[in-house]
Amino acid sequence: MQVPLASKVRAKVDPHQQRISSRISIGSDPALEGNVIGDEVNTRTTDVVVSNAKRKRPVLRLIPPCEDLSSSSSIHQSSSLSPLPTSSLSESDILHPIPIESIRNKITKRQKPASRSNNLEKENEFGRKKVHSNWTCSKAPPNILSLLRFDHIGGAPTQQALHPATQPQQPMPVIRPLTPIIRLKVHSGDDEQAVGKRKRSAPSVQDRYEGKQSRLPKQRMEPQAKPASGKKDKQSQRPKRTSNVENSREDEVHIVPLPSMPIEVSQGMPSSKLCKVLRIVGGLPRATPRRKEILSAPIKHPPVWAESRQELCEALPYYRSFQSGLYMHRRVAFGYLLEAFPAPRDIWACDGKVIISHGGGQCIRTMRPDGTPGPVSLQADQSHLDARVDTLLLAYERKTPIILIAGKGYEGLPWDLECAYVVLGWYWISSSWVEAEISPKEVSPPEGRNYFHRVKIRFDWIENQGEPWWINPLPQGNKVLTAMRESSPLTPLSSEASSPRRTPPTGVEMWSYDELDSRIPWTQDGANIGAVNEKSPKMDIRTLLNPSLGLLTPPLSSSGDGRASSTCDELKSRKHDRACWPGESALTTQTPLFTMTESSLQNPAFYPGEKCRSCRQPINQIYQEGLICLNSACKAFFLLHTKIGLLPIPPGFHLSYNDDFLVPRETPREVIIPYDIVPPEPAKRVPETEDAYEVGGRTLWRGWVCRKCGRANCRYRWEVWECRNCHNTLAPLDPACLVLPEQSRLSQPPFLGEAKVDPKSGIKSNIKMINEIGCICVIYDLAPAGKIYHLIQPHSAVSDDLLVEYQKSANQGGWFQRRALKAGAVKGQLLAQHFAVNTGASYKYQVDTLSYSFERSPQCVLMSLALITNRVRLVLGEEIGFNEILSVMYREGQKMSWHDDGETGLGPVVASLSLGSSAIMSFRPKSPNRTEMNAGFYTGISSKKVNPNTSLSITLSHGDIMIMQGRGIQIKYDHKVVPMGFRIASTARVIGDR
Ligand SMILES: O=C(O)CCC(=O)C(=O)O
Ligand SMILES: [Fe+2]
C-alpha cells in the first residue's frame, strides 16, 4: 500500500501501558502481538510499527488515514486505545523509520521542557541544528579538579564535579532498544518511492550504531563504500531480474543454502572449508588477515604510564575503575582501557589513530585450571540496558571525548609495552554497531539463536592533539618512507560526507567461477585459505555449489581421512536444538530457499546495493567481504550481502575491515578536549592546599603523575610525593604542620562508645570500672571465641602527647609508608590504603611491613607500647609481654577493610590505642567457608564473598584502648576500622615462634 505523502496518521495509545507512556505513546494490537521483530508483520493495516525489541510487541502504531479504521477489526478490538494528538508526529515520521530519539524528544518536549535532548541541540552558526558535545572545555577543567579527590578506592566523582549543568536534572532516561520496522507491501515501483523518501528521513535506531546523525544532509546518509563488486553502474544498467523472486509480492530474504558439510565449529573442527565455500559462492575476496602493524618502540616517552592498576586509579581522575574496562560515572564515559581480552574484530589500525574495540558489560571472565584468567565471553546481549554500553553509546551520540589507555597484553599494540599501562590519548567515538558473537557452550543465548549481540565501538584519534606520541618522526630526507606515508590511508578525510567514493579496496578481487575452481584448492587443515597449493586435492566448483545434484558430501581427501563418509544423513541426524549463528540453518537445510544453478550464478538474483535487502536500511561497508546488515532486529542481521544472495558468516570466518572504513575521520568541531591527560600536580592546585598545607586530608594521599618521567604514582610515603621510577619528589610536608589534640578531641565523647550489638549474635556486654584511672571499660563477650574490651579514656595527657609525637616522627620522614599487600587482586602491586610502620617482631601478615627493632624505633612507639601494656594490665589483670607494635596513620577517607589479625604465632591478646579522630570498629562472624586465617584485606576494596552481618560495632575515640582477648576472635571473626578523619592507631601484639 502506498501512503500518500500529505496524509496524516492517527495513532492509538494503550492507556494500560503505564510504564512507557511517559516517554512514548503506546499502542498495542493483540493481532500483532509477538509478530513484529524480524518477522513479517502480516497485516494489511500496519504500515509503520515501532516496537520494543525486548517485549516483542508493538508499542506505537501509526495508521494511515486512507485506511478505513472501522474496517480494521484488529483496531476495534483494542477499544481501550486512546488517540495520540497527531500534531506530535510529522509527515516524515509516517513515511520513514521513526528514530527513537525523535519520538522521545517529541514526547519529552511536551512533558519536560528542559530535557537532556534539548540540552544537546543547539543552533550552529549556519542556523542548522546540530548535536553538541555535552562536555565542553569551559565546563570541564575546573570540575576535573574536583575529581582528583576521592573518598575511597573505586569511589566515583560527584555529579557536581562532573557537570554542574546536569546537577538538578532527573536521572538520564534509559534508551530502550525500540526497533523501527517498516513493512513495505508494495511492488518494486512503490518500493523505490518509499525507500527514496526514507533516505531523507531522520535516522533509525540502527543509524545510531552506524554513525549517522539525524540532522545530516542527504548525501551523508549514503553509505560510503561502493558495493563489493564495484560495478554499480553496470549493475544499474542490467535488466531487471526475471526470477521468481521478482514475481513475489513481497521482497523476501533469500539466504543461500550451501552444501551441508560436517561442520563442528564449536568443537574446534575446522570451519575453513565452509569459509572457503562461502567465499567461492559469494564471489568474495580472499581472506586478507590484517597484518599486525609493527612499530619500532616509540622514541618519545608516553605522557603518562603506570606499573599497576592502583597507580592508574589513584593518579588519574579519568580512570578510577579497578575492575571494569570503562571508567564512567552517571552515564559519562571518562576512560576506556584496552586490555588483554579482545572481542572478535577488535583492531588497532592506522598507527593507532583508529581503534576498534567493544562494549563492555554482559561478559564473564572464565578462569583457567591454573587459576589464571581465561577468555572473556558474552553471557547476554549487549544493549542500552547495560549501563556501560549505554554510556559508550551516549558518548558516541554526544561526541564526548574519552581517554584511551592500553594495558600490557593488549594485542593490538604494535610494540612491546615495557610497563603495565600507557595512556594513549584522547579519542572520540566515531561509529558503533552491533555484531553477532557466538555464545559459549555453558551460557544459554536468547531463545532461537546461539549468538549474542556484541556492540562494537570505533575510537578515532582527536586531531588537535597533534600526532600520537608513539609515532616516531620520519628520518630526514627519507623520501621513500615519506612517499609511502603520503599515499597511505592515513590521510584524513575532510569529512565523512566528502569521503570520495573509492574503487573496491585492495584485496577485493572478483574471480570468475572457472578461475575460482582452479585457483582455490582445498587443504586438509584449512589453514591456507585461498592459497594455491598444487598438491592439494581440488573440488569441482559446480559440485560444490549445487546441492540439488546430491553433492552434499565433502570432497574426498587424498589422504583418505574418512571425512568423506560423513553424509547428509549423518548430518541430518545431528541434533540442532536451536538455531545457530545468523543464517546457520541455511547451511544445513536440505530444502534450498534459492536454487543455485549455473545460470543463476551468471545472472545473479541479487545485486549488492547500499541498503539491506531485508530491512532496507542503509549499510556502511565495514568489511571487505561486502555489505553486512548490522540491524540486530533484521532477518538479514550479520549476513553477508553477496552477488548471489545473503550468506551466513560462520564462526571463524575472517572478515577483513574495509580500508575505506579504516581511514581516520576528521574530528568534528564539537569534540573538545576538556583537560590534559596529565592531571595537575595535587599540592599546587587543589584549592584547599593553596593557603595552607593539609595534614590529614585526602589530597595528601592522592596519586601523582611525575613531571619528569610521566610515571603515575600512588602517594606511598607519608611526608612527600615521590616518584617510584626517577625519585623525583613533590611538596614535602612541613614538619611543623600538625593536627593538634584539641582539633581531634570530641567535646562530647560518644556515650559508652555508641556500641551497636546485633541481638541475634548472642553477644553479651557488661561494664567494669577501672578505678586506678577512673575510666569505664565495656566488655563484650563473644563466647566461645573470646572477649573484646573497650576502655573509654576521654582525657589522657599521654594520648595528647602521643598524637603530636607520632606526627613529628612521621613528618620527619622515612617511617610511615603505604605497604604492599601480599596477594594483589589487581594488576601490579597493590598498596594498603593506610601508612604504617612496624616495630619489634616482624609482622608480615597480609601487608609486607618493614620492621624496625624497638631500639631503632621512634620514641612515640615506645611511649605507646608502655601505655598499652599498662592499660591492658589494669583491664585484664595480667602483664602481657607485647613484642610487636604496628603503628598506622590514616588520612581522611582511608580505612582498613574486613580482615583478621591471624598471624602465625599470634598470642591471644591484641590491644590497640586510638589517637586523633574517632573510628568505628566493627566485628562480624566469618562466612562458614572462610574460617581459615590469612584471607583478609587491608585495601578498602571490599570482597563480595563475605558475610555482611555486623555483630558488633563500637566507636573508638582519642585515647581509647581496645583489647581483643582470645585466639578465637581472629578465627571466627573479621574486623574493620573506618576512621572519621585523620587518625593514628597503635596496635600491640605478641608474636611467638612461627
Ligand atoms: O586502626 C585500628 O584501630 C586497628 C587496626 C587493625 O585492625 C590492625 O592493625 O590490624
Ligand atoms: Fe586488625
Automatic annotation (TrEMBL):
Ranges annotated as biased composition (Polar residues): 488-501
PANTHER family: ALPHA-KETOGLUTARATE-DEPENDENT DIOXYGENASE ALKB HOMOLOG 2, FE2OG DIOXYGENASE DOMAIN-CONTAINING PROTEIN
Pfam families: 2OG-FeII_Oxy_2 (PF13532)
Gene3D superfamilies per the UniProt record, alphabetical: Alpha-ketoglutarate-dependent dioxygenase AlkB-like
Domain of life the protein comes from: Eukaryota
Protein name as annotated: Fe2OG dioxygenase domain-containing protein
Biased composition (Basic and acidic residues): 119-128, 207-223
Composition bias, Low complexity: 70-88
Start and end residues of each Fe2OG dioxygenase domain: 881-992
Region Disordered, annotated ranges: 68-88, 107-135, 186-252, 486-507
Cited InterPro entries: AlkB-like (IPR027450), AlkB-like_sf (IPR037151), ALKBH2 (IPR032852), Oxoglu/Fe-dep_dioxygenase_dom (IPR005123)
